[in-house]
Amino acid sequence: MIQINRKYIKHFDWYIFLILLSISLIGVFTIYSATRPIITNVQQNYYTKQLLWICIGMVGLIAVVIYDYAWLRKSAYVFYIFGIILLLLVLLIGKKGMGAQRWIDLKIIVFQPSDLFKIVLIVALARYLSTIRYQLTKGSFAIALVLFGFLPFALIIKQPHLGTALITFSIFVFLALSKGIEKKFLIGLTIFLAIVVPLVSKTMWNGLKEYQKNRIVAFIDPAIDPKGMGYQIEQSKVTAGSGMIFGKGYLHGTQGPLRFLPEKHTDFIFSVFAEEWGFVGCTIMFILYFMLFIRGIDTALKAKDEFGRYVSIGITFMLFMYFIINIGMVLGMMPVVGVPIPFMSYGGTSTITNFLAVGILINIRMRRVVMVY
Question: Which 3 state secondary structure label does DSSP give 182?
Fold first, then answer.
């Protein structure tokens, strides 16, 4: 039975928690502004739902913090198997929408297993890496690649969800590199990929859905179809750029409420924020995010064991990738791949999952002091 270590509560990391709460509440206010009624008199309740999910996420964070993270290590592979089963169920009985099949409908709640799976992957991969004494060899890397790289990537890309699939695979690559790979094998693998990737690029392109191809084409040249596949990118850049230095002011943005910008409260919420708060507001928001990332790195450096270190690295990298890709989408520097910005974008599964992830970070940081007792 899992025991609650109450003595660790005094080491709760309020620094991370306050950053998390600040970003989340800014997100709620921005969602309210983006969806406020201008054309019609009907206020959609996206912001109230987001508040509810933040509250659920906070409860989940506290629940995760209470128990020593050692139980995650013991149950890592069980969670991983359960996560793979959920991804398979999505393909078999998942709910379809917007040309994809990514959700499981439990009637009471609809959730996206791929969001939760990223944490499961990090925990399971951290468990595997922490059992290897030295660097990854050809054999240990091959096992990790098949189980933690290709398998989840294939299941998620089948939904299809290109953005999440790429982040999932990048988590595997980053954690593997963090562990270390034998030099000769790494050099050979790099040369192999340099030869193979160009050869299979046509097959990879043909495997993409039509809308995914359109997004890549729109990224390369949005002007090719400014009213069609290039519209989202162009409107996002217009919205963000119109804020200039100091922004138009809260509730004075127009691109979102007037429906010029699609997905204004989800993947492109930062465009609305940039319009209202300008370069100065964006700089402050960037500082908040990077304070969170730096705290995550510091947690990894101070973790009491290898498992905690790899979990901290994985969670921090995951949040960083979401941030970088989303900002890249908003500014037209990356293709639109359906990646939300952590804690700001509207979304139940992603919000709750990210709170749980940060809860694990706080848990690891709290228990770094175990040796003083």
Answer: coil
